[in-house]
From TrEMBL:
Residues 127-137 have a biased composition (Basic residues). Pfam families: DUF2442. Gene3D superfamilies: Uncharacterised protein PF10387, DUF2442 (3.30.2020.40). It comes from the Bacteria. The lineage of its organism: Bacteria, Pseudomonadati, Pseudomonadota, Alphaproteobacteria, Hyphomicrobiales. This is DUF2442 domain-containing protein. Residues 113-123 have a biased composition (Polar residues). Residues 107-137 are annotated as: Disordered.
Length: 137
């Protein structure tokens, strides 16, 4: 696929706009707090718990410690894990793909313990638990 000069110029303009909003100048793994600390060109530091970032939750501290910042400062890369993170997405609170984020939100919702959910669970327990799934043919 060939890229035209105009497409290339438009892509560079988009990148520059993202950089102006803040780009990484360095990143490190904080073992004590189990988080990634990203220093931005604006002087702001962003600390993100690794458990929140797709691909980092189960990684060893040694693997997490090796972080590369992209030349444009818009990406972080963990070579031993083959994980990329987009810095503008981190700033927006997006820590993974849409599918992965939806799974995380669903898991949180499933753990909620509202009074109505507790009552429904107790009622199901009195009836013998959740009904078994039946095969539809």
């Amino acid at each position: 696929m060939a890229v035209t000069e105009q497409e290339f110029a438009e892509a560079e303009a988009r990148m520059q706009a993202h950089r102006e909003a803040g780009h990484a100048v360095s990143a490190r793994y904080d073992r004590r707090a189990s988080r990634v600390v990203v220093s931005l060109n604006t002087g702001v530091q962003l600390a993100v718990p690794v458990r929140l970032v797709e691909g980092l939750a189960d990684a060893s501290p040694e693997d997490l410690g090796e972080i590369e910042v992209s030349p444009a400062g818009l990406g972080l890369y963990w070579p031993k894990l083959d994980v990329d993170v987009y810095v503008p997405a981190l700033l927006q609170g997006i820590f993974g793909s849409k599918r992965w984020m939806a799974q995380q939100l669903g898991a949180i919702g499933g753990r909620s313990r509202s009074p109505s959910k507790i009552a429904a669970s107790q009622e199901n327990g009195r009836k013998g638990g959740r009904p078994r799934k039946t095969a539809n043919r």
